Amino acid sequence: MIPKPGSPAKRLFTARLYESPPRISPKSSQYSPRRELLKLRRADVQLGKGTRVPKVCKQLEIAEQTYYRWRQKYGGMQPEMAKELKALQKENARLKKMVAEQALDMDILKEAAKGNS
Fold first, then answer.
1. Most buried pick, 31, 43, 93, 108, via CB within 10 A?
2. Three-state secondary structure call for residue 108
3. What is the DSSP string of 35-90?
């Protein structure tokens, strides 16, 4: 049932029609880097025994794609190195944000200077 025109319910109904859909955030990993490395080590042991990758992934309850992504991401890292990598990535993201904000501030100042002359 559509509400009567001009009523508060009609305005709410109309607003909901035109509001943007909820944003879907990317799923974060359910495993910590340490757990990912432990699973990779277990996989290496099984692969060393001659077990094939699909079977190893099934035993570890991960997808093959996940195995190869972790292998590419971590290679032969130790857990301490993975923790350091995560910290460096976080710091890098923070610094990139700072640079972007400074560039924006500089653009604003340039525009303001143009307007004054």
1. 43
2. helix
3. HHHHHHHHHHHHHHTT--HHHHHHHHT--HHHHHHHHHHHTT--HHHHHHHHHHHH
Q: What is the sign of the dihedral through the CA atoms of 99, 104, 19 and 8?
A: positive
User: What DSSP letter does each residue of 25-37 carry, written as one string?
Assistant: PPPPPSS-HHHHH
Residue 2 has pLDDT above 70, yes or no: no
pLDDT digits (tens, 9 = 90+) for 75-103: 777 777 878 888 899 999 999 999 999 99
| Tokens read off for 116 | 């004054």
State whether the Cα torsion 12-13-15-21 is positive or negative. positive
Question: What are 31-75's pLDDT values in tens digits?
Answer: 887 888 889 999 999 999 999 999 999 999 999 999 999 998 887
Kindly provide the b/e burial profile for residues 80-107, where b requires at least 16 CB atoms within 10 angstroms of the residue's own CB.
eebeeeeeeeeeeeeeeeeeeeeeeeee
